[in-house]
TrEMBL record, chains A, B:
Annotated InterPro entries: Aminotransferase_I/II_large (IPR004839), HTH_trans_reg/aminotransferase (IPR051446), PyrdxlP-dep_Trfase (IPR015424), PyrdxlP-dep_Trfase_major (IPR015421), PyrdxlP-dep_Trfase_small (IPR015422), Tscrpt_reg_HTH_GntR (IPR000524), WH-like_DNA-bd_sf (IPR036388), WH_DNA-bd_sf (IPR036390)
Domain HTH gntR-type: 1-69
Protein name: Bacterial regulatory, gntR family protein
Taxonomic superkingdom: Bacteria
Originating species: Lysobacter antibioticus
Keywords: Aminotransferase, DNA-binding, Pyridoxal phosphate, Transcription, Transcription regulation, Transferase
GO molecular function: DNA binding; DNA-binding transcription factor activity; pyridoxal phosphate binding; transaminase activity
A Pfam family assignment: GntR
CDD domains recorded: AAT_like, WHTH_GntR
Protein family per UniProt: In the C-terminal section; belongs to the class-I pyridoxal-phosphate-dependent aminotransferase family.
Lineage of producing organism: Bacteria, Pseudomonadati, Pseudomonadota, Gammaproteobacteria, Lysobacterales
Amino acid sequence: MKRYQALADDIARSIRQGLLSPGQRLPSVRQASAARQLSPSTVFQAYYLLEAQGLVQSRARSGYYVSEQARTLPPEPDAASQPDGESRPVDVSELVFEVLESAMAHDIVPLGSAFMSPALFPLAKLGRAMAHEAVHLDPRSTVDDLTPGNAELRRHIALRYRIGGVELGANDLVVCNGAIEALNLCIAAVTRPGDAVLVESPCFYAALQVLERHGLHAIEVPTHPRDGIELGALATAIARHRPKACWLMTNFQNPLGSTMPDAKKRELVELLARHELPLIEDDVYGELHFGTHRPAPAKAYDRHGLVLHCSSFSKTLAPGYRIGWAAAGRYTQQVARLKLTNTLATCVPAQLAIARYLQRGSYERHLRRLRTTLAAQQSAYLTAVAEHFPQGTRVTRPDGGYFLWIELPEDRDALRVHREAARRGISIAPGPIFSAHRGHGHCLRLNYGHPLDARVAAALRVLGGLSSVRSAPA
Amino acid sequence: MKRYQALADDIARSIRQGLLSPGQRLPSVRQASAARQLSPSTVFQAYYLLEAQGLVQSRARSGYYVSEQARTLPPEPDAASQPDGESRPVDVSELVFEVLESAMAHDIVPLGSAFMSPALFPLAKLGRAMAHEAVHLDPRSTVDDLTPGNAELRRHIALRYRIGGVELGANDLVVCNGAIEALNLCIAAVTRPGDAVLVESPCFYAALQVLERHGLHAIEVPTHPRDGIELGALATAIARHRPKACWLMTNFQNPLGSTMPDAKKRELVELLARHELPLIEDDVYGELHFGTHRPAPAKAYDRHGLVLHCSSFSKTLAPGYRIGWAAAGRYTQQVARLKLTNTLATCVPAQLAIARYLQRGSYERHLRRLRTTLAAQQSAYLTAVAEHFPQGTRVTRPDGGYFLWIELPEDRDALRVHREAARRGISIAPGPIFSAHRGHGHCLRLNYGHPLDARVAAALRVLGGLSSVRSAPA
C-alpha cells in the first residue's frame, strides 16, 4: 500500500463515516503535507485519487471539497435484521433459479448479477501465464497436481495468508473448483441430512441452495448491515436449536456488505469453540477492501481447527478459471477425500496458470487498481441511488466488495420490482432470495461492479421508478 | 478406420476368441489379398500391426504365425459373479482411500492406478490450443460459458454422438468437472438418501464412494466378465428391492473390461423403462475400443429420456483438464441446476481449448494411435501375466480400455497381495474395493495403460510371486 493510498483511504473513511461533511473544504495540499509529514506530491496524488472515486471535487483556484452529492445520500440501514428464529428445511432453489434464469439473457443490464465486469480482470496477462504453462505442461502434473492441488499454487496462497497474519501452510489447503465446491465439501464434512445450520439474515442465496441440496435446516440469525451477525442472538440460537455448524461471510458479506470487526470475529470463534461448533467461513470478497488493510478472516483466530475457511480467485483475479480452496482445519483430510469423490481434481492448467501469475508478482498491483475502481463505482452508484430512489430508501456503504444493499420503504415489493425490471431488460437481486423464510421482501441487492455507463444510469432511473410504487395491500 | 486396421482387428478378434490358435500359420499375404479382395500392401500393413501388438510373429521365409505365447495364456474368467443380492448401505470409502493413498507415492509402479500413462496424450498440441484460447479469451465468455457450458464444445461433443448414431443435440449436454461430477449430479437428480441403487459386481469403486456419500444403498447384481450385467438377475433384483436407479458401465467396464452387446443394451434400456427406472450410464472408456467400431452407449436406445449418460475427455484426450459431461435426458435441467450449486461452472479456458482442438480435426487420428498402443500393451501384459502368475489364474481379454481383471485361485488374498506389493513399491487394485460387500477377495485389477518397460516387467514378476502364496486358512 503506497503512502498516498493510505492517506486517501483515511480521508475516504472519514467521509463515509460523516466526520467530513459534504461541501466541507479539505486542508490545502501544503497544510496537509505539513500536518501529515508527507510530501506535497503524495497529498496531491491522494486528493486526485479521491476525486477519481467521486468523493471530493476540485474547484478552480479554491482547492478540494467533499463532494456535494454526498449530502443527499440516503441514510444507511441502522438496525439488525429480525428473522423469526425458527429452524426450517430450506426450499429456496426454485425461486432463486427463477430469478437467476430471468437474468441470463445476454443483453440484460446486470445489476442483479453476482459477477463484476470481466473487463476488470487481467485476463490477457493471466492468459499468457496459462499459455506458457499449457504448452510446457509436464505430463506427470496431470497426476501429481490432482487433489489436494498443485503444491506451488498452494504455497503461494498460504504465503498470502501468512503475510496477512494467518498461520496457514500449503498442506492446510485443498484446491477446489471455486469457493462453491469448497463450501459444499466443508458443509458435507461437518453435517448430516436433517442437521441445522446457523446462517446470517439475509445470507447468500447459494449458501441456502447448498443447505437445501444437503437436506439441512437453516436458522437465520439477526445480522447488522455494518458489522455482521449478532453474537448474542447467535448464542441464543445455539442454545435453542443445537445446530451442527455456523456458515458466515465475515468480510463484505453478500448481500449486506457487512464486515465483522476483528474483536467480534475473535469473540465469534471463541463462542463457537466453546460449543465445539464448526464455522464455515466464506471469505471470497476479503481481498476487495477499500481501506488500508485486508480485514482478517475469522480463521486468523482459530486455535482449535474448527474454522473451515473457503475462498477463491473468482472475484479477484480469474473468473471462469474456477480455482478456489478450503483451509478446513481438523477436517482437511475429510474435505480432500470428499473432493476426490465429488470432482476428483481441479483443472491442472488453470492451477498452474494462477501459480505462475502469482509468482510473477503483479497480483497486488492488479488488486490495488481493482479496489480503487470498485470504490469509485460505489460512489457513482450511491449518487445515482440518491437521485432516483424514493424517499425512505436506505442504502449501505460497504468498505469493500461490489454490492449495495437497498432497503426500500416497507410497503414496497422487491419481487415485483424484480419482475417489472426483468421485463424491461434489467436484472436485480430481490431480498427474498437471500432468506430461507422469504424475508427481506422490501430489499434489493445492487451490483456496482460494472462501470456506470449511460445504459446502467438509465436502468438505475427505471429501478428507482419501479421502487416508488407501493405494493397493493395484502 | 483404415482397411488394414479393420483387417487387423478382425484377425486379432479371431485370435482372442481362439478361432486361430497359437502357432497356426496365417494365410500368406497373396492368399489373404485374393480372399479378402484387398491390396497386398493392405494385408502386409495389417500383419505388421498385429506383429507390433505381439499377436503374430513373422518367421524368416515362412510367413506369419499366431504368437506362440498365446498358447500359454491363462483362460478367461467364464462365469458371472455371484454377489449375495442384498441391499446394503455402502461403507467402502475407508478401504478405498487406504488403498489409493498407499498408491500415491511418486515412484510407485502404477499397476493399481486408474490412469494410463499421461505420455499417451497429445498434451503439447492441446496446450497450443489452450494457449491460443487463453490469450484471446473474450471476457464475456467468463460468464457466457458457465453452466451448461461452452456452446461450441457442446456442439462438437453432440456431433461425435450423432456420427455414432446417437441422437443428441448440444442442448442435451451439461459440461461438468470430469465424468465424476456428472455422475454425482445424475445420481443426486434421481435418488434421495436411503434409496437403493443397482450396480455391477464388481463395480468401479468411485461409484460405490459416490453412493456412500449420498447415503444410498447398493445392490450388486451378477455380472459376466465378457458381456456385462445379467439381465435376468437384474429383473429379479428390481422386483425384490424396488431400487430407484441402476448405475452401469456398459462399455469396457471398470474393472472387468466387459462390454454389453448391442442387443443386450437395448433389452436393458427396455427393461428399465418398463419399471420407469433411470439408468446412470458411465461410458468414459467407450472411445478406447480395439475393434472397428465404437460400441454404442445404452443412451442410443433411450426413447424415454431415462438414460443419464456421462462421459469425459479424461481417459481419451485431456487428463487433468477435468472436462466431462452429462446427457441426462428428462433430468437435464435438474442436473444443470445441481451443477450450479455444486461447482457453478467448469473451467472456461479448458472448455475452449478442447473445443478448438476438436475443431482442428486431429482427435480421431490421436484416438486411432492410442487404441493401437493400448491393444499392443494388452498383449504384452497378458504375456507377462501368463509367464509369472500361478496355475489356476484366469484373466480377461477386453476389447478396449486399459484394465485386465485377474482372478487368482480362490485361496489367494488380494488385499494381502496389495499390502505386500505396496511395501515393494508396486500398486495394484485389489478386488474388495470394487464391492459393497468386500467380495472378489481373490481378484486384482491390473492397469496396462503404461508401457511394459523393465520396471513394470519386474513388478509383474513380483506380483506373480506374491499371488502364488496361499492365504492362511481363515
